[in-house]
Write a sequence for this structure.
């Protein structure tokens, strides 16, 4: 028999299980004893810049019809991270269910987005994975039942990345702003924030070198007015107390990021 | 976020909110578009301005898709030919539907549509064609059902298409205008606008056999230039976020006469025109 036929009824895991090897963390060592490289406090997010509408109909000079342009768009900066997002829809979907609308997300790194290597223009497995994560983080906030048969598409491009978890958080914030710009009905805007565990300390919004030094990273997407977490992602090992602390700090920071985005949206509508 | 107290409730107008902000917790209010309720509290679901009509609270966002109402005049593009129906892109949340039974046959013949009509649906409308139609009813899922059962509705030709923000086209008694410059304009409430060479109603009726023709009539250079000028004027009004009506198009047209049609959307010319057009509109109102 061919060996590549898989028996789907059994658990096809390995026979033996092994506890993962964690890199040894020296809790006593504290690289942040003299503060962070860019002078931020440990629970401080990098400065944020948001702008909605750079790709949408009335701004683009070349678009002949607004049908060709995005319904909503946003550009988001957080320190060195630069993300842009275009939202299309709600429009008739190809494979949409009759009762609920669908939300699809396409996350791409620009070929030059990462400073340490040039990315291929072919979509990588990590980009697919992040696309799904973004869908899961954002979809609970959208009132999909208000859009039967319709689909809403978000296209996210990372122009520059600096810390993987922080880039995903920036993408979530950028999509929220773009959805609000598109006038799509939502229960709440989603704000996201990431943290890294270095030694025994949680460090907010890690840049790439800080993330490389961290033993664990945590990403939380949160709806502040509804007080609901839509997505939580942890890489690495922590104690339950540390996780608890991280969730607390992260949601507080999300609320602050949310305030920045809301403030911008209100000002832009004046 | 913050919840209004009873005293602030009356001040819900002219406030800007973002998705998820609480508008009021007074159970006396009814929630309208752009809001959702949880318990007695009404929250905003879009970023926009709060509007209040008596007890009804709604939030209007700057950009919104077209939500159809029965009797609306729309311009749409055929996206698919399906069984006994066409699917039409009407700039809405989902495609509209034009049933084979709700179109006119060439020559105005009145009869039931037969199987042979069903087989030659593409001779009436095929993919990519533009139609001028009226909203007849809704389907259960909110999709619009259109009809073209009038001599003035039907296939569009002899002109050009412009898409604008749907909220800029107000509902009015008539949506088909013949401008003094000899150009016909169809203002679809869904934000799709068709600008074409003027063809008199008598001629349209005489040509009832050819209402589904794909061939343009001969269009002279002057007519082409007027059409292009009107199209760019509509684009300009859209960019200015000004209501697009017969009057505003005529104003823009008259103000633009000093420039070549192709220059109208250049930034410096557009800025100059914007100033004079908005000035005239303000004077008029």
């Amino acid at each position: 028999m061919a060996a590549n036929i898989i028996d789907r009824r059994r658990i096809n895991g390995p026979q033996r299980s092994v506890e993962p090897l964690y890199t040894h963390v020296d809790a006593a060592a504290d690289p942040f004893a003299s503060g962070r490289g860019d002078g931020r406090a440990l629970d401080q997010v990098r400065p944020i810049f948001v702008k909605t509408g750079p790709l949408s109909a009335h701004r683009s000079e070349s678009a002949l019809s607004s049908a060709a342009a995005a319904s909503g768009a946003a550009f988001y900066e957080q320190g060195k991270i630069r993300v842009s997002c275009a939202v299309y829809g709600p429009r008739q979907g190809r494979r949409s269910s009759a009762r609920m609308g669908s939300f699809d997300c396409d996350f791409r790194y620009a070929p030059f987005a990462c400073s340490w290597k040039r990315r291929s223009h072919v979509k990588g497995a990590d980009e697919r994975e992040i696309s799904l994560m973004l869908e899961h983080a954002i979809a609970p906030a959208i009132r999909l039942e208000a859009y039967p048969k319709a689909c809403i598409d978000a296209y996210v491009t990372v122009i520059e990345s600096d810390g993987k978890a922080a880039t995903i958080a920036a993408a979530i914030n950028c999509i929220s702003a773009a959805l609000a710009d598109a006038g799509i009905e939502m229960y709440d805007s989603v704000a996201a924030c990431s943290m890294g565990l270095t030694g025994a300390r949680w460090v907010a919004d890690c840049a790439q070198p800080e993330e490389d030094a961290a033993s664990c990273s945590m990403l939380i997407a949160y709806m502040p007015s509804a007080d609901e977490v839509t997505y939580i992602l942890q890489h690495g090992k922590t104690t339950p107390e540390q996780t608890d602390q991280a969730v607390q700090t992260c949601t507080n920071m999300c609320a602050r990021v949310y305030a920045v985005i809301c403030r911008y949206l209100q000002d832009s509508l004046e | 976020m913050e919840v209004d107290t009873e005293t602030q409730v009356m001040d819900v107008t002219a406030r800007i909110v973002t998705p998820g902000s609480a508008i009021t917790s007074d159970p006396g209010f009814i929630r309208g578009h752009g809001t959702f309720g949880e318990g007695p509290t009404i929250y905003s679901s879009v970023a926009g301005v709060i509007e209040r009509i008596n007890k009804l609270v709604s939030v209007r966002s700057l950009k919104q898709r077209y939500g159809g109402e029965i009797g609306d005049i729309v311009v749409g593009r055929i996206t698919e030919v399906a069984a006994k129906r066409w699917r039409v892109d009407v700039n809405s949340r989902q495609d509209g539907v034009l049933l084979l039974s709700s179109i006119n046959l060439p020559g105005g013949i009145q009869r039931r549509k037969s199987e042979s009509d069903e087989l030659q649906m593409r001779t009436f409308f095929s993919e990519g064609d533009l139609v001028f139609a009226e909203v007849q009813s809704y389907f259960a899922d909110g999709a619009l059902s259109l009809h073209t059962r009038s001599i003035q509705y039907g296939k569009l030709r002899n002109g050009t298409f412009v898409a604008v923000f749907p909220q800029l086209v107000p509902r009015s008694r008539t949506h088909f205008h013949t401008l003094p410059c000899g150009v016909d304009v169809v203002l679809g409430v869904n934000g799709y606008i068709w600008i074409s060479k003027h063809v008199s109603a008598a001629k349209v009726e005489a040509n009832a056999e050819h209402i589904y023709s794909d061939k343009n009539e001969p269009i002279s250079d002057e007519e082409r230039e007027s059409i292009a000028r009107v199209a760019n004027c509509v684009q300009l009004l859209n960019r200015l976020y000004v209501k697009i009506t017969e009057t505003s198009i005529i104003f823009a047209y008259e103000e633009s006469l000093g420039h070549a049609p192709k220059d109208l959307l250049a930034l410096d010319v557009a800025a100059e025109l914007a100033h004079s057009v908005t000035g005239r509109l303000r004077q008029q109102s």
Summary: Chain B has six helices and 17 strands. The two ends of chain B are 40 Å apart (CA to CA).
